[in-house]
From TrEMBL:
Keywords: Cytoplasm, Glycosyltransferase, Queuosine biosynthesis, S-adenosyl-L-methionine, Transferase. Belongs to the QueA family. PANTHER family: S-ADENOSYLMETHIONINE:TRNA RIBOSYLTRANSFERASE-ISOMERASE. Transfers and isomerizes the ribose moiety from AdoMet to the 7-aminomethyl group of 7-deazaguanine (preQ1-tRNA) to give epoxyqueuosine (oQ-tRNA). It catalyses: 7-aminomethyl-7-carbaguanosine(34) in tRNA + S-adenosyl-L-methionine = epoxyqueuosine(34) in tRNA + adenine + L-methionine + 2 H(+). The gene is queA. This is S-adenosylmethionine:tRNA ribosyltransferase-isomerase. Transmembrane segments: none annotated.
Length: 341
């Protein structure tokens, strides 16, 4: 499909720079089939059935934004995918100043050596020393806010909490699974009280999720890969829920992409551990997911393509037009939507 088919005009003032307080006070656009209605995140339990299962991503965002120096040159580094115990691929600002073999100093005794470049221009760094890389990043890094927020304000201490979900457990993401940012203890209690199931999987969201689609046709776009895991016990419970007639409601596009990567042709979810570069566009046949809770996405992005595949492009264009007219807040810190085909 033509990438231009997924374009729309978004007023810049609708880009949320901070989350709702409390988190579950955000608005939620409920789209079921072709019916669109305005709801609140706190109403989520009322919109699901007791046999449904919400599937969350328990990845934890690491302080993956680094500012360093190679000699006199300033170098900005955003880690985006782990390669080994001490090695990370990174997008580099001022990359021409960094050659293979150069060491970049990030302050606080944190250093990394550039090993080589990838086909996409990213640089593979190896962090020096014996301390775990996670500790080094806590000392030298900052939270990697999405570019559409970072371009409007600086990162601060509030973001260390705001840009982390209540389910965050497994270190490795450089972007939050933002649909889960809306959840609070009281919302989870209401979900449990109704008998709606909850499961978690892990997909480490990479900075590639923010890369623009530069191709004119979706068939020519190369999707970034991300590492994910669904263990055998979780896969078994998800399959059992579907056999009982429950729907799997993915909380976020990351959870959806991993479930669909793990599902076989018959819709049975298999244990999964490894990279996925699944690219979901209209025409895709969904194997296991029965619904999606997600924030509002960028024009011409792979994520808007994904929701259009789930609901239909015309339905999503109408839903987004309604959201813009009603002044919903967009993107990572913005409002939510519940999409049921």
């Amino acid at each position: 499909m033509r990438v231009d088919a997924f374009d729309f005009e978004l007023p810049q003032e609708l880009i949320a720079l901070r989350p709702a307080v409390p988190r579950d006070a955000a608005r939620m656009l409920h789209v079921k089939g072709g019916v669109i209605e305005d709801r609140m995140v706190l109403e989520l339990p009322d919109l699901l059935d007791e046999h449904d299962v919400l599937v969350f991503n328990d990845t934890r965002v690491i302080p993956a934004q680094l500012e360093g120096r190679r000699g006199e040159a300033k170098v900005g580094v955003t880690l985006h995918k782990r390669e080994g115990l001490r090695q990370w691929w990174a997008f580099v600002r001022n990359a021409k100043r960094v050659r293979d073999g150069d060491t970049v100093e990030f302050g606080g005794g944190v250093e990394a050596t550039a090993l080589r470049r990838g086909d996409d221009g990213a640089v593979l760094f190896e962090f020096l020393g014996d301390e775990p890389v996670e500790l080094l990043l806590e000392r030298a890094g900052t939270m990697p806010l999405p570019p559409y927020i970072a371009s409007k304000r600086g990162t601060d201490e509030r973001d260390r909490e705001d840009y982390q979900t209540m389910f965050a457990k497994e270190d490795g993401a450089v972007a939050a699974p933002t649909a889960s940012l809306h959840f609070t203890d009281r919302l989870v209690e209401a979900i449990d009280a109704k008998g709606i199931g909850r499961e978690t999987l892990t997909l480490h969201v990479g900075a590639g999720t923010f890369l623009p689609v530069k191709a004119d046709d979706t068939a020519d776009h190369k999707m970034h890969s991300e590492w994910g895991r669904i263990d055998a016990a979780t896969a078994e419970r998800l399959n059992a829920a579907r056999e009982k007639g429950g729907r799997l409601i993915a909380v976020g596009t990351t959870a959806l992409r991993l479930i669909e990567s793990a599902a076989d042709e018959d819709g049975v979810i298999q244990p999964f551990e490894g990279d996925t570069d699944i690219f979901i566009t209209p025409g895709y046949r969904f194997r296991a997911v029965g619904g999606l809770m997600t924030n509002f996405h960028l024009p011409k992005s792979t994520l808007f393509m994904l929701v259009s595949a789930l609901m239909g492009l015309d339905t999503m264009k109408a839903a987004y037009a309604h959201a813009i007219a009603e002044r919903y807040r967009f993107y990572s810190y913005g409002d939510s939507s519940l999409l049921i085909p």
